[in-house]
Amino acid sequence: MDWKQSAEQAESKLISDLKALISIESVLDESAATGEAPFGPGPKQALDWLLDRGREAGMTVKEVGGAAGHIEIGEGEGLLGILCHVDVVPAGDGWETPPFEGHERNGKVYGRGAIDDKGPTIAAFHAMKMVKESGIPLNERVRLIVGADEESGFRCMKRYFETEEMPEIGFAPDADFPIIHAEKGIADLVFSQLPGEDAGPLRSFPFRGQDEHGPGHGEGRGVAF
Ligand SMILES: [Zn+2]
Asked: Which NCBIfam families does the entry mention (predicted)?
C-alpha cells in the first residue's frame, strides 16, 4: 500500500470537501436554536453535511441530539476516538476574500475554520477513508467524533458522552495539529491586578506546586505573556 500515492490521489477531493464545509456558516446562533439544532441551523448543517459524507463512504454513522455525531470504521472491541468539531467562531473583519467560501491562494485554503477545525476534520475523515478503501481489515474501531459546539462551551461533547461510548484512547487534531493534540475543555480567563506600588505588567504565573513567589520568579515554567 502506497499511502503517499493514495493521499495524492485524494488531494483534490479533500480540498473540494474542505471548501464545501467552509462554505457552511456554522456559527453558534442560540436565537435560532431548536430541539433538533440546539446550536442553531449553521452548526447543525455542517454536522449533517459531514455525517452524510461518512454515509456516502459506507461508514457507520450516528447523529447524537443534533449536537454531535460520529463516523466509524473497523470492527472489534477497542475504540480509538478522533475528536473534531465543525462549528466556527464568527468571521470578524479584515478578510481579503469572503470568509465562508474557501479560497485558494499560494497553495493554501483561506476561510473561517480552514485551520480550526474544518481542515483537520476533513484531513482525519479522508485518512479514515483511505484506510477503508485500502481494504486492510481493522480489528479495532476508529471513530471520528464530531462536535458542533466546541467554540462555545463543549456542550456538544457533554451531550455526546451522556449516551455514547468513551474511547479508550484518542486525540484531537484541532487547529495546529500535532502541536494541539488533546483538549479537555475550554477556559475563559480574566487576569487582573490590583493597583499598587509594585504593580508591574502581568508577565507570568507559576503552576501550582512549582515556584510560588509571584511574577518574574516562575518565568519559563508557568504561562508567560
Ligand atoms: Zn478548535
From this structure: dipeptidaselike
**Mean pLDDT over residues 22-34, rounded?**
97
CATH of the domain at 95: 3.40.630.10
C-alpha cell at 203: 508577565
Q: Is 150 a catalytic residue?
A: yes
Residue 183 CA, ligand 1 centroid: distance in Å: 9
User: Which residues form the domain of 197?
Assistant: 189-225
Instruction: State whether residue 184 is helix, strand or coil.
Output: coil
Catalytic residue among 87, 117, 149, 151: 87
Backbone angles phi, psi at 73, to 5 degrees: -130, 165
Return d(Cα 76, Cα 158) in angstroms, integer. Answer: 25
Residue 24 has pLDDT above 80, yes or no: yes
In a shared domain, residues 163 and 194 = no
Query: In the structure, what pLDDT confidence band is assigned to residue 197 with cuts at 50, 70 and 90?
Result: low
Residue 188 annotated as catalytic: no
Q: Is the pLDDT of residue 40 over 90?
A: yes
Q: Among 158, 149, 115, which Cα is nearest to 44's? A: 149
Q: For the segment 91-112, what is each residue's pLDDT rounded down to a tens digit? A: 999 999 999 999 999 999 999 9
